[in-house]
Specification:
mainly alpha, single chain, 436 residues
């Protein structure tokens, strides 16, 4: 049994973290004058809590020892109680820095004034619909072109994409993501016209479910449904807190079950070592932080500068950089699990692990503060500029993918903003001029 510290301190840390999250929620509710579920700060802090508390509670209820290989790499890493507490402290510092700055600035943002909202015009709606269809057709044709190899499993799909030429990978990433943003603009435009568009919304909902592949990524269906629910909350009818809690609980259960089913594919895949197999998203990201703490304690941790801060130039095309572009997630799996990468596997890195390999508590605190400032600016633009037609779609895209600043790296969304989101909005506007 792991006895370096009293394991009950982990519960105390989780309660402190939960208290910070509830405090932020209550403050934003006061400023929002209704349930603040379109508030990026509220969504962000509860997602951070989930990614931190879930693996820590699993550790606690197993009495400080991961008992089975179902915990993935945590079973082989076997963190001590003190290492788990260190990671939780980093998460708490991240949340605390974010909360102090976000609440300090949040009271300056007023509730949305619906009379000032500029509804997305018909020509923009048509433009986004056309570009969405073009993106889906283009990506489908590319897969049939032979430029991308065939994949039988979810893991192998990543491998064949990584082996494709650089321009093909860039095309898939940008065109595919741009299509999703166009889809989001269509969703927003339809909810702005509710109730006369209810039939079109129903069709979109059916397409979302029909096109979902349970063996593939869970992100698309979860994010599309979340975007619809938030848009309903903003434009149609306020959703009560208990309904949000129910939705989030059910979504988490479905997300976990789908992840477990996909994990079964990894478990039965002979190309993947048992050391890499597991059924949990949260444990996978938490494992990265555990390993960074363990490697750091051995003085065995060196990260190249261009990798350490790669989130600040990831949006620049590889052809324009004087060095080979990489990321913490790619560096990590190449360095520690090369055979897993060769099989097509990989993990997002995690902002908690990012602080663990760097300045620890203080880095997490300052990263939280900086991210809060960035999200405040974006949230303020959405609330104070409703007469700009793209202010809400722009904000909504960042809101529904804000979990990436926890799952990946703190400022990973900068790439999405500059490389995909803003260019797509400009493209939609330019094409809309044709339909004027």
């Amino acid at each position: 049994m792991n006895t370096s510290f009293d394991i009950n301190y982990i519960l105390l840390q989780i309660f402190i973290f939960l208290a910070i999250a509830i405090y932020l929620f209550r403050k934003c509710s006061k400023y929002n004058q209704k349930a603040p579920f379109d508030d990026i700060g509220v969504i962000w802090i509860f997602v951070l809590f989930l990614y931190s508390a879930a693996p820590a509670l699993s550790f606690y209820f197993q009495d400080g020892v991961y008992l089975t290989w179902l915990s993935g790499r945590l079973f082989s890493l076997q963190p001590t109680i003190s290492q788990t507490m260190d990671l939780l402290n980093i998460s708490i510092c991240y949340a605390l820095g974010f909360t102090v700055v976000y609440i300090g600035l949040r009271k300056k943002i007023k509730p949305l004034v619906f009379s000032k909202i500029d509804i997305i015009s018909d020509k923009v709606l048509i433009s986004a619909s056309v570009l969405f269809l073009i993106s889906k057709i283009s990506v489908t044709l590319l897969y049939f072109s032979g430029l991308i190899g065939a994949a039988d499993t979810y893991i192998e799909e990543y491998r064949v994409i990584n082996e494709a030429p650089t321009l093909v990978k860039q095309f898939l990433k940008i065109v595919g993501a741009s299509g999703n943003i166009c889809y989001l603009i269509v969703v927003v435009g339809l909810f702005q016209r509710w109730p006369r568009t209810r039939f079109a919304v129903l069709i979109l909902l059916l397409i979302t479910f029909i096109s979902f592949n349970p063996d593939g990524s869970r992100t698309s269906i979860v994010m599309n449904l979340f975007a619809m629910i938030v848009s309903w909350h903003v434009y149609v009818k306020k959703i009560k807190t208990w309904i949000w809690v129910l939705f989030c609980t059910v979504s988490l259960m479905v997300f976990t079950v789908l992840g477990a089913l996909r994990g079964v594919e990894e478990i039965t895949n002979d190309k993947v070592s048992d050391s890499f197999k597991g059924l949990g998203e949260f444990e996978a990201i938490w494992s990265n932080g555990v390993q960074m703490i363990q490697e750091k304690s051995k003085n065995n941790l060196t990260v190249p500068f261009d990798v350490r801060f790669s989130e600040f130039w990831q949006f620049i095309p590889s052809q324009l950089l004087p060095f080979e572009k990489s990321s913490l997630s790619v560096w990590y799996v190449k360095k520690y699990y090369p055979s897993f990468q060769e099989a097509g596997g990989g993990w997002a890195f995690g902002s908690v692990a990012q602080s663990a390999l760097g300045g620890g508590y203080m880095e997490a605190l300052f990263r939280g503060m900086a991210l809060a400032l960035l999200y405040h600016i974006i949230f303020k633009f959405y609330r104070n500029r409703p007469q700009v037609w793209w202010s809400y779609p722009f904000y909504l895209q960042i809101l529904i993918f804000s979990y990436q600043s926890i799952r990946d790296t703190t400022f990973s969304q900068l790439t999405e903003i500059f490389q995909i989101l803003l260019p797509t909005i400009v493209t939609v506007w330019v094409v809309s001029l044709v339909f004027e």
